[in-house]
Amino acid sequence: MSDVILGNEPLIRLAVFLGVFSLMALWETASPRRRRDIPRLLRWSGNLGLVAINTALLRVAFPILAVGAAMLAAEQGWGLFNRIELPAWLAILVSVALLDFAVYAQHVMFHFVPWFWRLHRLHHADLDFDVTTALRFHPLEIMLSMAIKLAVVVLLGAPPVAVVVFEILLNAIAMFNHANLRLPESVDRRLRLLIVTPDMHRVHHSVRREETNSNYGFNLSVWDRIFGTYRAQPRDGHEAMILGIEQFRTPRDLWLDRMLVQPFIGPASFRLGDSTSPAPDTTSIKFKP
Question: Among 30, 33, 101, 266, which residue has the least CB neighbours within 10 Å?
Answer without folding.
Answer: 30
